[in-house]
Amino acid sequence: MSRAARKQLFSMADLLKRAYKALEGNLWKQTIDTEQLTGLLADSQEVAVSMGTQIEAICGEGTDTVRELENYCETLYQITQSYGNPAMQKELLRQLKQQLGRIRSRIGKDVPDRLEAVFLPYKASMWDSLESIWKAAKEDEEADAYVVPIPYYDRKPGLSLGEEHYEGALFPEDVKITDYHEYSLEMRRPDIVFIHNPYDDGNYVTTVHPHFYSGNLKKYTEKLVYVPYFVCAGEEVPEGMALTKGVCNADYIIVQNENEKEQYIQHFQNRYPGVDISGKLLPLGSPKFDKVRSAGRDDLQIPTEWRQMTEGKKVILYNTSLGGLLNESERYLEKMERVFRFFSKRKDAVLLWRPHPLMESTFSSMRPELYEKFIKLKTQFIQENIGIYDDTPDMHAAIGLSDAYYGDLSSLVKLYQETGKPVMIQDVKAE
Question: What residues contact 52, with CB distance under 8 A and at least 6 apart?
């Protein structure tokens, strides 16, 4: 249980104590205000039931605290039967006071004082943007870390919700997954929530479930932390990525360096004069760099088919991004077709094509007139065995296996440069 939820339980216990004082004052009056007394008893029971429900949902059944709360509720009921019997009322008030003391003590024992951090990824392929932070939280003896993959949806033309996707089964085996149906943000109130999707309803290709928009998450946590799913290949942080709703709502944003921090600040000053966000920008690097630096060729878990296709050959990682697609859609497809045709004739090299995870969805929602052409090209690449088609969630296998990078100037370039292997940026216009 989070420290925030624990603190809330103690606050509710304090509320019961104040209600007890009011009950005591009412019962010792010469003329009891029955209506006020009934309201106090009902409110006290409602608070006690709410506490018990929250504790059972998080700690399970059979705790001493819940048993004491049940005894407390029974005493409240007995008070309703004691009107006109001062001796009985005095005894019940004595019991009630003792029960309140035990409830507070039991909370301290049943609900440990631990930090609770929850990670809310939506695409398994973007897990590397959170992984090293999760590992550090998991190793902290005073913290509990939960990974709760959340559902997302394709956007149809007109931005209505399309097919639902859930990738909880695609995460690495060492990551213990908690089903989002079983993790109640409202009930658990995690101390820290980490997200890597900053767009809320502003993404025209996909959207996470609205319950997990950053504006809603802020209601249930004291610290909302946004960790970008990308790293900047060039020197500029695009304005559209710096001014998202997730950035605005987050308590902290992890940025790569001081230069990137200054760019975020400048974008905000240009759009919102007088707004200073410098205090919530933390130049700590990127977990994506942590991942690529730690991965070695010997650590790769790749399909046998990949090893057979690459034996004795150079492997070229071909990365196609959404930015290139949207800027030069038809010409972009023609470029891809030429690249595939070139590598289909090579005996000394194999192309490992890794399209952006949202490429097919982007064609469907934003370039529907070219969707069938893309699907035809993709099908041809796979069926004619032109190269390796990589739609796996983990890009690091492709980075580790390949000998060089070819493709768009995307965040993957910045990561690939960390390996020291050659990088070549494609020119869509070049024949």
Answer: 65, 66, 69, 70
